[in-house]
Write a structure and sequence with these properties.
The protein is of the alpha+beta class. It folds into 2 domains: 1-299, 3-Layer(aba) Sandwich (Rossmann fold), CATH 3.40.50.300; 304-372, Immunoglobulin-like. Helix content is 39%, strand content 21%. It is built from 12 helices and 15 strands. It has helices at 7-17, 68-79, 85-90, 96-111, 124-139, 141-144, 154-161, 165-188, 204-219, 242-259, 276-288, 350-353; strands at 22-26, 36-37, 44-46, 53-55, 116-120, 196-201, 224-232, 264-268, 304-308, 311-317, 326-330, 334-339, 342-347, 357-362, 366-372. It has a 4-stranded antiparallel sheet, covered by helices on one side. A 3-stranded mixed sheet has the order 2-1-5, with helices on both faces. Strands 6-7-8 form a 3-stranded parallel sheet, with helices on both faces. β11 and β12 form a beta hairpin. α1 crosses α11 (276-288), α2 (68-79) packs antiparallel against α8 and α5 (124-139) packs across α8. The N and C termini lie far apart (70 Å). Mean pLDDT is 75; it is low at 1-10, 25-64 and 156-165.
Length: 375
């Protein structure tokens, strides 16, 4: 029986081996753990849920405990004279606990204590929903919580309206939470410092899911720089495996052609579970070769507004999309781009908001939206 190993551990071991301090989050069943790794780390080897990962025991934190978002909701309800237990009911909504994890992730990134941060994400669809929500949180910051400039009349207006003194604190706390999420969004979208790497099997179903992920990541401008084709049968697997190995190699070729120019790194299935740093480093060498796992392996075209003959053009690379899946909607100061079941709202630059003419063209993998003066 051939064993498997999580790809994130391969990245971790190569980074740690080079003496860099690493923060590693594993979202295995959505339980986040961290490890602070240096040139002489002390590891505790754990094997929950058949996933091998390294964890510094002293770094365990209660990331599922009530976090700053729940605390803020409770304060908000108290300020509005509402039952604060409703906040705890809202905390049961799907995705609520993820906000606390994202805020914690942002704290560690901004601390400057680590050279690299690796996030082991859940299933693709859940991850994409989370990244889309992060994009929305960044966008609504100024709309829901604009920075407030007090005036000399504000104390009198507060007194006349019965405005609670604690309301200002609640307002600023909400703004701070969204600001932290906004900064995290900017960090994760920076192709010079962040990247997403997909893991897929050599079969058509995995390729379809990977293509959908590439499209969504492109829509939200999250940098994708590589994909791993996992669990490939090696040559010495035995004659019984020849038919399946041949199918995998055929599918691998198709995966590479389909995702080109994105690098696709083949990872062989191992004869047994990989254990210990030496085993992980050896597998990392098979996956990355001489490449630096902490480096950006590929840069895709960036989303950008450009000026052309007096018009402004927004160019969006959207691979694996059919024209009938696309739609756009113009608002006063924003543009909504619909791609299948997903959508993203783009805030328009000030110089574009006054242009009333909107047209679009799709050339197979790039959507171009042109803003012009309507004649």
């Amino acid at each position: 029986m051939y064993g498997t190993v999580d790809r994130v551990e391969v990245i971790d071991c190569l980074i740690a081996e080079r003496g860099l301090k690493l923060r590693h989050y594993v979202f295995a069943d959505w339980i986040m753990v961290g490890s602070d790794r240096g040139p002489n780390p002390c590891y505790q080897i754990l094997r929950p849920a058949s996933i091998l990962f390294l964890q510094a025991a002293h770094q365990l934190g209660r990331h599922d405990a009530p976090g700053p978002v729940l605390t803020w909701l409770r304060d908000l309800f108290v300020w509005r004279n509402m039952d604060e237990t409703l906040a705890d009911d809202m905390a049961a909504f799907p995705g609520f606990a993820d906000l606390a994890r994202l805020l914690t992730l942002g704290e560690h990134i901004e601390s400057g204590d680590f050279d690299a941060v690796v996030v082991d994400c859940p299933a693709v669809r859940h991850t994409l929903d989370l990244l889309a929500a992060l994009d929305a949180a960044a966008r609504v910051l100024e709309r829901m919580f604009p920075e407030r400039q007090p005036t000399v009349l504000e104390p009198f207006l507060k007194a006349l309206s019965g405005y609670a003194a604690s309301g200002e604190d609640v307002y600023e706390a909400g703004r701070d939470l969204l600001l932290r999420l906004s900064r995290l969004r900017q960090t994760l979208a920076d192709p010079e410092t962040a990247s997403v790497r997909l893991v897929l099997a050599a079969d058509s179903a995995s390729l379809t899911e990977a293509q959908q992920a590439v499209t969504a990541l492109s829509l939200f401008a999250y940098p994708l720089d590589a994909a791993f084709c996992n669990r490939l049968l090696p040559e010495d697997a035995g004659p019984w495996a020849n038919p399946r190995r041949d199918d995998q190699q055929t599918n691998l070729k198709y995966v590479r052609e389909s995702l080109e120019p994105l690098p696709v790194l083949p990872v062989p299935l191992q004869p047994r579970d990989v254990e210990g740093l030496q085993g992980l480093v050896a597998l990392a060498g098979l996956a990355y070769g001489e490449a630096d796992p902490a480096a950006v392996l590929h840069v895709r075209p960036a989303q950008a507004f450009s000026r052309r003959d007096g018009d402004y053009v927004l160019s969006l690379a959207l691979p694996f999309v059919e024209r009938e899946e696309l739609a756009i909607e113009r608002l006063d100061d924003a543009l909504i781009v619909y791609v299948g079941e997903r959508s993203r709202t783009f805030d328009l630059p000030v110089e574009v908001r006054g242009l009333n003419g909107v047209s679009s063209a799709f050339d197979g993998d790039t959507l171009r939206v042109t803003f012009s003066h309507q004649h």
